[in-house]
Amino acid sequence: AQARAAVTRHPGWDAAENLTTRTGPLFEELGLAADAEAVYKKHLEADKSPAAHFALARFYIAQKRADEAIRLAREREKTAPPVLTARLLTGAVR
To answer: Are 88 and 65 in contact (CB under 8 A)?
Structure first.
């Protein structure tokens, strides 16, 4: 709880440009997986780009939650770059 509070105390911790590059990875590093997942989901809701799901799927792969990574990649494969979908699926299977 103290680590999360220390992160969320800083201005801009939840700014769109920081979610996948700073805040999410920091939560992961601190072992706050639920907070990291919430940040990546928030990013996914806000970012409508074809590759917006990458950070969340990569997180699922790192957490050994391959089924969720595969589901997310399959849901987005029609609009995502094929190379990204292949990368996520092979990462999840590996």
So the answer is: no
Coil, strand or helix: which one is 49? Answer: coil
Two tokens, residue 38: 């919430």
Whole-model pTM: value is 0.92
Whether 70 and 86 have beta carbons less than 8 Å apart is answered as: no
Rounded to an integer, what distance in angstroms lies between the CA atom of residue 52 and that of residue 55?
7
CA torsion angle for 86, 71, 80, 46 (degrees, to 10)? -140
pLDDT digits (tens, 9 = 90+) for 29-82: 999 999 999 999 999 999 999 999 999 999 999 999 999 999 999 999 999 999
Are the C-beta atoms of 32 and 4 separated by less than 8 Å?
Answer: yes
